Amino acid sequence: MENVKLGGRVALVTGGSRGIGLATAQALARAGARVALLARKPEPLAQAAAEIGDLALAIEADVSDPGAVRGAFERVARELGRLDILVNNAAIGRLHKIEHATDADILAGVGTNFLGAIYCVREAVPLMRAVGGGEIVNISSEAVLRPFPYLSLYAATKGALETFSSALHQELKPDGIRVTLLRAGATASAGFAREWDPATAEEAFRVWKERGLLDFSDAPMPTSVLANAVLHAVTQPPGAAIGLLDIRPV
Ligand SMILES: NC(=O)c1ccc[n+]([C@@H]2O[C@H](COP(=O)([O-])OP(=O)(O)OC[C@H]3O[C@@H](n4cnc5c(N)ncnc54)[C@H](OP(=O)(O)O)[C@@H]3O)[C@@H](O)[C@H]2O)c1
């Protein structure tokens, strides 16, 4: 039955080329949706789209660039004809104490994690309104509840995303657009920490452990857990919306 749930619908998943974004795109496609995957690097993106097959459209774009985001949504409207679901998943989490953050680190963090979601929502709303409603899922992090040192910029961008989500829920209700915030704990995605400098990572993990910020007894969750949660949120019957999903490993 799963494959009829989203038949005829179109989704766009930012950061759909790997990790949680790819698992989410796969779950949406398995449920029958056509899915636009958006990311910067062409090769993993093409590979991800090929894995999904005919239901996938690969769009190379940087969410921190408003012009590129506009172009991406224009392509979705032109090539897929409509938009029903937006998953704001693309994010980066560079590891540094704030005094060591470069201008580029700060611009990329805020630009990708917060402004990127704003640019995407701005383009998505008119397309969703045109089809009578839609679903927006914003991916946040447990870092909002337990703001980790060395990831202060990341935590702040997710906090801003959460406030944006709450306001959007009110703003978009009259348009039939539901907004869900998915706050995730540690998830087994190889991508997120792969560019962390090993020495800084060692220092950060020591501090997190000393301060009880990370529970090392919990194994990270598989990406499919988050993907299924997104699917659950976007397949609710009319008349209800899932405002917050807070999912953590145990
Ligand atoms: N992994 C965790 O433990 C965890 C925990 C809590 C919350 N989260 C959240 O879950 C989401 C996904 O995390 P993940 O671990 O799956 O990350 P990931 O493996 O690093 O994947 C990130 C995805 O975003 C894309 N991306 C990054 N910057 C982009 C940009 N400027 N424009 C367009 N695409 C961009 C990447 O592709 P390109 O690099 O090719 O652009 C990639 O497809 C993020 O919002 C993260 O904050 C993760």
Q: Would you give an account of this structure?
A:
With 250 residues, this protein is α/β, with parallel strands linked by helices. It has one domain (2-247): NAD(P)-binding Rossmann-like Domain (Rossmann fold, 3-Layer(aba) Sandwich), CATH 3.40.50.720. Helix content is 45%, strand content 16%. The protein has seven helices and seven strands, in the order βαβαβαβαβαβααβ. The chain has helices at 19-30, 42-52, 66-80, 103-130, 152-172, 198-210, 223-234, and strands spanning 10-14, 34-39, 56-60, 85-88, 134-141, 177-184, 244-247. It is globular and about 50 Å long. The mean pLDDT is 95. NADP nicotinamide-adenine-dinucleotide phosphate (NAP) is lined by residues 14-15, 17-21, 38-41, 44, 62-64, 89-92, 112, 139, 141, 184, 186-187, 189, 191-192. NADP nicotinamide-adenine-dinucleotide phosphate binds at residues 14-15, 17-21, 38-41, 44, 62-64, 89-92, 112, 139, 141, 184, 186-187, 189, 191-192.
